[in-house]
Amino acid sequence: MSNNEKGANPAHFVIFGATGNLATIKLLPSLYNLEAAGRIPAGMRILALGRQEHTHEGWLEHLSKVLHDKFGDKVNRDVANTFAERFTYMAGDLRTPEFYPILKEAVSKPSSSGADTVVFYLSIGPGDFNTVINNLDEVGFSQPRGKHRIVVEKPFGTDLETAQQLNRSLHKHFDEQQIYRIDHYLGKETVQNLLVFRFANTMIEPLWNRNYINHVQITVAEDLGIGTRADYYDKSGAMRDMLQNHLMQLLTVVAMEPPSSLEADAVRDEKVKVLKSMRPIPKSSVNAHAFRAQYAAGTIKGQPVVGYQDEVGVEKNTVTETFVAAKFYIDNWRWRGVPFYLRTGKRLAKTQSHIAIRLRHPPQHLFQNTPLDQIEPNWITLELQPSDFMQMELQVKTPGLGMGTRQAKLNAPYRLGNEAPMESYEALILDVIQGDKTLFIRFDEVEWAWRVVDPIIKTWSQEREFIHTYPAGSWGADESSRLFDCEDQEWRNEI
Ligand code: BG6
């Protein structure tokens, strides 16, 4: 994707929720990596806001532990020192208005470079977005309009209506060009590579449609549980936490038409067209299109782990889903009749994300010694993590006298041995610092994605008596196979 609109470097990067899970595992390590790469503007200060009481030294110790937990001995002491010097920690409750004049005071000095733009990164629960936005306005951060940047983490709202409210509330105080709706999956290299794979190779595009493709599967599996995030997760569930945003973004990039250019809006226009073409799911057939389940106790990497109901902070008898699978159709010329199966879950057998595309069987059964039901169909698979590669599975002749076939895999890793993988947040945070919105989400994408999943969420919110379970460490509940249209379709767990 291209970038043609860059803004002024910020003087201050303010992290709301600096001691929270996201900041700890993603934001602070990514900022450190940007420091190591020399990409943080000279003079940019980082203001870490959190509820925990820390002295300045206490915060620095915490920061050092965060980096050590992430990078171990690879932390470079000089880089870590320069990085630490940028920080000021402020303890406070973001729900109290008294906190904001103090914040204003803290960021009122322009940086040594003369910059005075402030980035506000809302790494907090969606329930607090409105409070922060209103309080920032109260102390005058929205004036002059167009100056500061605000980064809003997903989920953007909890359904269509709340997303629209949040958007209205943001627009009351900020212009669209100041609002960065983040979905870190768009910073993943494989996702960007999917555009290259599809549109820079003439051999792929002719196959990429209902004439050749039987179905598409998108899997984002995690072996982690909910950790310390019960407060957020139990109100959210896998549908809101992952499927409405990350998986839906993957789906749009797989399914979109070639954009007229790689300008941000040209790409977003095509993605929105996909979402608008998705067949609405009537309430009466939610169960045929969506499946939810919750992890029970089990074993992960040889260690016993508790079930979701026994995680600290989770409400008793909750029916919040930690696994969701759904089937969607895109009713346009390219995809009509091709099911897209999406699934994601916590405490699954391993952490692995992939897109698996199954092609149709050839129309003629030519190979005598290989009954048709033994001939594997062709697959194109793209792994997003743990590694990132693209693979094609083809049939070749089994060596020897008979005329049999077997499967061969053509594997294309994206990365050469010496090319280090990058954390998706690095690219996105750098974009925020530089004022480049190309990889951020436009509101109509959010809105249409909610329209697609809202009937499911609404139905589930009324069905609160029962939820399927799966043992931690498995691939989810077997019952999710009921979504498949045909008997010969099944989940691809390994690629
Ligand atoms: C976040 C979700 O957006 O994405 C988490 O809130 C999830 O629940 C995470 O663990 C997964 O991201 P990644 O990059 O590790 O696949």
Summarize the structure.
This protein is of the alpha/beta class and 495 residues long. It contains twelve helices and 17 strands.
What does this molecule look like?
With 495 residues, this protein is α/β, with parallel strands linked by helices. The protein folds into two domains: 12-181, NAD(P)-binding Rossmann-like Domain (Rossmann fold); 186-413 and 473-483, 2-Layer Sandwich (Dihydrodipicolinate Reductase, domain 2). Helices cover 32% and strands 21% of the residues. It is built from twelve helices and 17 strands. It has a nine-stranded mixed sheet with strand order 16-15-14-13-7-12-11-8-17. α5 (129-138) runs parallel beside α6. The radius of gyration is 24 Å and the shape is globular. It starts with 9 loop residues before the first strand and ends in a 24-residue tail after the last strand. The model is unreliable at 1-5 (pLDDT under 50). Bound molecules: 6-O-phosphono-beta-D-glucopyranose. 6-O-phosphono-beta-D-glucopyranose binds next to loops.
Please identify the top-level CATH class of the largest domain.
Alpha Beta
Unreliable segments of 5+ consecutive residues? 1-5
Q: How much helix is in the residues?
A: 25-40%
Q: What's the number of extended β-strand segments?
A: 17
| Percentage beta strand | 15-25%
Radius of gyration: 24 Å
Major beta-sheet overview: 9 strands, mixed
| SSE run | EHEHHEHEHEHEHEHHHEEEEEEEEEHHE
Heteromolecules bound: 6-O-phosphono-beta-D-glucopyranose
What's the name of the CATH homologous superfamily of the largest domain? Answer: Dihydrodipicolinate Reductase, domain 2
SS content category: alpha/beta
Shape descriptor: globular
**Separation of the first and last Cα atoms:** 28 Å
Q: What CATH architecture label of the largest domain applies?
A: 2-Layer Sandwich
**How do the strands line up in the largest sheet?**
16-15-14-13-7-12-11-8-17
* Number of helices, where a helix is a run of at least 4 consecutive DSSP H or I residues: 12
Q: Compute the average pLDDT.
A: 92
CATH topology annotation of the largest domain: Dihydrodipicolinate Reductase, domain 2
Tally of structural domains: 2
